[in-house]
Design goal:
Layout: E1 13-19, E2 24-32, E3 38-39, E4 42-45, H1 50-70, E5 76-83, H2 86-89, H3 92-104, E6 109-110, H4 119-125, H5 146-165, E7 174-178, H6 182-193, E8 197-201, H7 205-214, E9 219-220, H8 223-228, E10 233-236, H9 247-250, E11 255-256, H10 269-275, E12 279-280, H11 283-286, H12 289-296, H13 303-311, H14 313-327, H15 331-349
Parallel strand pairs: 3-5, 3-6, 4-5, 7-8, 7-10, 8-9, 10-11, 11-12
Antiparallel strand pairs: 1-2, 2-5
Helix pairs in contact: 1-15, 5-6, 5-12, 5-13, 5-14, 12-13, 14-15
The chain binds nicotinamide-adenine-dinucleotide.
């Protein structure tokens, strides 16, 4: 994102917050409230500079607008960053000061967890503001969002499988799960229930031990071997940037669908995937189960209702893959177009003339 000209980024509002007593420096970015209040997490991170923090919040809040639109939520896109090292700076007074800034926006922005912030932090922020989700179960929250994230990824993967092989199932397919963390573990279970063969990798020996103990039928390999393995589907569930100039040429899978955020290492990778005949189910479409889960808290958390919404990731992915074929563009481009369409259409209904 270019920040030389802040008015050029298309954001509705960017709020700089400072509390000298607690050392809080935060930026709240609201990209769009076309669909409703902006929802997106708070990232607590030691940015190298204020410019870096601003660039990140502008990118992330825009991304949330697209993600929430495709998740079918009546919520716009926003995000916040707290600039500093959470290990040194995070304190109850700081989080409370931040909560008062969120409250001052009167519901234009709802916050939630992101890198560096946790459910317990949301409980503290909630002492100062109503506009916070991702709270603990004891406080009426949805708890661990990886449950529906994994369910949604599985639904998106089913849609991709249908697009390529004709049936919405992973039955008999070999699926490579890269990263057996919170999401990867749940996803592995859904895949095995669907009678897929799972090959997996994780750098953490504890995660590998968990698989050996709970699912001995899963084959464990190292990360580089998984990319080049004879698999039908590759599911990045670890860090961002999994699809780059080295991994894409090595891939033998026909489908990529996984939970990790920002899987495409740089613009242009979506074209490289398409040229190699690999169907990429856009990350922000298939991993929206987590935001669906926390968004549900705003109405009073109901797991079944949230699960139903996450199940619709199957329909949305299907629609995007068809649109991509019809318009001759990669799925990532089709997803952006569909999100922009919804923001414009619903946005028009909410405009007061
Ligand atoms: P996690 O930290 O619980 O799990 C990540 C796992 O990946 C860990 O077990 C880690 O050891 C492993 N890993 C790290 N580097 C690796 C490598 N190079 N090769 C193989 N394994 C590696 O995180 P999570 O909550 O399971 O999330 C996974 C991904 O999904 C992240 O990118 C996250 O941003 C994204 N995501 C998560 C949610 C959610 O609700 N948890 C929602 C949307 C997106």
């Amino acid at each position: 994102t270019s920040i030389d000209d802040p008015s050029s980024t298309g954001h509705e509002q960017v709020v700089f917050c400072q509390d000298t007593q607690t050392g809080l420096r935060a930026i709240i970015g609201i990209y769009s409230t076309a669909l409703g209040p902006a929802l997106g997490g708070t990232r607590f991170y030691p940015y190298a500079s204020e410019e870096a923090a601003l660039a990140d919040v502008l990118d992330l809040s825009r991304g949330m607008a697209y993600k929430n639109a495709l998740a079918g939520l009546d919520l716009g896109g926003g995000k916040a960053v707290i600039w500093g090292d959470p290990d040194q700076l995070k304190s109850e007074p700081l989080l409370r000061a931040y909560g008062r800034f969120v409250e001052s926006l009167n519901g234009r922005y709802y916050t939630a967890c992101d890198v560096g912030t946790y459910v317990a932090d949301m409980d503290v922020i909630a002492r100062e503001t109503r506009y916070v989700t991702g709270r603990s179960v004891e406080h009426g929250g949805a708890g661990d969002s990886s449950v529906l994230t994994a369910w949604g990824v599985f639904q998106g993967m089913r849609a991709a499988a249908e697009h390529v092989w004709g049936a919405p199932t992973l039955n008999g397919r070999r699926v490579g799960v890269a990263g057996l963390g919170k999401v990867g573990k749940h996803l592995t279970r859904h895949l095995l229930d669907d009678h897929a063969e799972v090959v997996a990798t994780d750098v953490d020996p504890r995660a590998r031990e968990w698989v050996r103990a709970n699912h001995p039928q899963v084959e464990l390999v190292d990360a580089a071997a998984l990319v080049a393995a004879d698999i039908d589907v590759y599911a990045p569930c670890a860090l961002g940037g999994a699809l780059d100039d080295d991994t894409v040429p090595a891939l033998r899978a026909k489908v990529v669908a996984g939970a990790a955020n920002n899987q495409l290492a740089h613009p242009g990778i979506e074209k490289l995937l398409a040229d190699r005949g690999i169907l990429y189910a856009p990350d922000y479409v298939v991993n929206a189960g987590g935001v669906i889960q926390v968004a549900d808290e705003i109405e009073g958390f109901n797991f079944e209702r949230a699960k139903l919404r996450a199940t619709r990731i199957y329909d949305t992915t299907r629609q995007i893959l068809r649109l991509a074929d019809d318009e001759g563009v990669p799925p990532a481009v089709a997803a952006d177009r569909l999100a922009e369409r919804r923001m414009a259409e619903v946005g028009r209904l909410r405009t007061i003339h």
